[in-house]
Known about the structure:
The protein is mainly alpha-helical. It has a domain at 149-205: Serine Threonine Protein Phosphatase 5, Tetratricopeptide repeat (Alpha Horseshoe), CATH 1.25.40. 76% of the residues lie in helices and 0% in strands. The protein has helices at residues 2-17, 27-42, 47-58, 63-70, 77-91, 96-108, 112-125, 130-142, 146-159, 164-176, 180-200. Helix 2 (27-42) packs antiparallel against helix 3 (47-58), helix 8 packs parallel to helix 10 (164-176) and helix 9 (146-159) runs antiparallel to helix 10 (164-176). It is globular, with a radius of gyration of 18 Å. The termini are far apart.
Amino acid sequence: xxxxxxxxxxxxxxxxxxxxxxxxxxxxxxxxxxxxxxxxxxxxxxxxxxxxxxxxxxxxxxxxxxxxxxxxxxxxxxxxxxxxxxxxxxxxxxxxxxxxxxxxxxxxxxxxxxxxxxxxxxxxxxxxxxxxxxxxxxxxxxxxxxxxxxxxxxxxxxxxxxxxxxxxxxxxxxxxxxxxxxxxxxxxxxxxxxxxxxxxxxxxx
Length: 205
């Protein structure tokens, strides 16, 4: 027990002195959040406005905000999303946001492998969209493919070391595998990044 307490103290000390810049979000994606937020505030009961804002949150790494909104949408809306964005994809197959959105439609329709395929299409079009990797890992974890989920998280973190939600997913993978030291280490990183991120995002919609 004393050994674990010492390890915890050391890790806390490391996390307190480690400083890193939070990942940067493009101005285009920030504008998406602002625009979708204004539309949402104009009609907070609309499934469409809730879904679009949730997606803007999702591809800017604001996972909790996005998830909280998605939970307020009836699952039956997933078919609307699938039909709408598959049609848009036919018209513009290189629009990565359409693939991102239809992936969520498939996810909530419980067509998880199809959702993963759509997230990989996002990455074919926009290789730096690290959150697509995050959602692939999330789905694989839900499917019990924990080793693959961990591998994907590590790949994503090589691209963007400060992706808070992906550190959390990696921690969860380690917890499921019984690797509690690694779980603890990742959760300390999550705590630090969440604090820095909340300061940076203060005042944003």
